[in-house]
Fold:
Amino acid sequence: MQKKSIQLLVIAICTLLVESSSADCIILLHGLARTASSMNIMEEAFQRRGFRVANVNYPSRKAPVEKLAHMAVRSGLETCANSPDERIHFVTHSMGGILVRYYLARNEIQNLGRVVMLAPPNKGSEVVDSLAGVPGFKFINGPAGLQLGTDHQSIPSQLGAVDYPVGVIAGTRSINPILSQFLPNPDDGKVSLQSTRVEGMSDFIALPLTHPFIMRSQAAVRQAISFVETGAFARGAL
Structure:
């Protein structure tokens, strides 16, 4: 009986510790032409750390960035709404990072925490520059996809430096040699390494991962958790 009582006490303490660490909420935003299911591994990992998670699904191919940013971020904020003392963090893949930057350039989140961007086209992508006029490109990528080039009229080019904690995780491997021919090397098959950087970011790390699968990588998941929890990437965990 005594042993069982001790076990129950340990379980109760562990439960309290998890609950006490769950004050913060994570908003996950997937990339272009993807769905929330692409962020499932990231979602489960943060939940195991005690965070509440809003894994937002939004119609990335159906509207321009301006509309998607408001739609996706507001949806996440509504799910995360709880105590005014909790912080709200973002973990994004690809275009999801641009949605956050666009939203925060025009709106303030009082309890904003940290933002992790995986393979973000922060300076646009030369793939869009080269293929935007090809028949079928808009059908596959939607109006938002056409806004992610590197010219002065693109959405990324119109966004300024970030003034909140941002950690960028970039990929350096490609499984798409056709698209990589349009990109400065190294690249991840959709975005060049140099284009993932954004002025004002707090930390940056490059991993040997590809654009389509970086958000499912355990290495990227570990780094995302590290930045959210500490404000820096854990290079010792590579």
